[in-house]
Write the structure tokens for this entry.
Amino acid sequence: MWWRAGWCVRASFWLYLGLFFIPALTLLQAALIGIEPDHDLVGIADVIERRDLTAGTLLAILMS
């Protein structure tokens, strides 16, 4: 009978993890699908890579 208790604990543990992670994965997938490449962001990334942009200018661009 002791093996049934262990099986029940393992099953409930995996069920609990599944109930937590499956909605989190669907939210992450929805967020990733909603992200579209933006030409402004690509340009900002290029400028940052070349180090032609100061932190203040970057903040001003991102806040606008």
In short: The mean pLDDT is 65. The first helix runs from residue 2 to 34.
